[in-house]
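[Discussion] Sanity-checking designs against the backbone

I'm trying to build intuition for which residues belong where. Below is a structure token string of 161 positions. I'd appreciate it if someone posts a full sequence so I can compare it with mine line by line.
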């Protein structure tokens, strides 16, 4: 088993060395161009890495500044249970919890929709006498059929089928 592995490694090494030699001989006239392309590639990689390092450093500086500012603000805040106060530079305390409660927006209440004016009793009876149905009268005057029937019944003019 060991001899099979050694022979496979030997064959791969011989074939690889042969292909490398053939490639080297074939590219001999173009080695200057290949060198320039490789040099250009390495220059581009280093330039991109430099830009990445610059922006990474700038970002790190910003993060460190934000953490410093946050630490300064947190050192001025006093918290005990639900009450939070902040110490201001003039030596007074600002009650932040009270300001937060005072800033809450009150519950918004929808305005009542204006009701359409009720039809006059005489108008409903007049339209009914012209032969219109209760349903048509209710739609025309924006009333319920029940109310139209009540008005007609009170006048004693309800038709039977």
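Best answer:
Here's mine. Compare freely.
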């Amino acid at each position: 088993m060991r001899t099979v592995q050694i022979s496979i490694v030997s064959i791969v090494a011989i074939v690889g060395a042969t292909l490398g030699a053939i490639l080297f001989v074939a590219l001999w006239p173009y080695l200057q161009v290949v060198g320039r392309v490789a040099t250009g590639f390495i220059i581009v990689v280093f330039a991109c890495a430099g830009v990445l390092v610059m922006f990474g450093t700038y970002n790190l500086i910003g993060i460190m500044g934000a953490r410093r500012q946050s630490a300064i603000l947190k050192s001025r805040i006093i918290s005990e249970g639900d009450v939070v106060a902040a110490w201001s530079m003039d030596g007074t305390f600002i009650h932040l919890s009270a300001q937060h409660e005072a800033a809450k927006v009150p519950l918004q209440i929808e305005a009542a929709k204006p009701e359409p004016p009720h039809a006059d009793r005489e108008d409903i009876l007049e339209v009914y006498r012209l032969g219109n149905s209760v349903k048509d009268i209710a739609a025309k005057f924006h009333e319920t059929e029940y109310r139209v029937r009540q008005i007609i019944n009170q006048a004693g003019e309800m038709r039977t089928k």
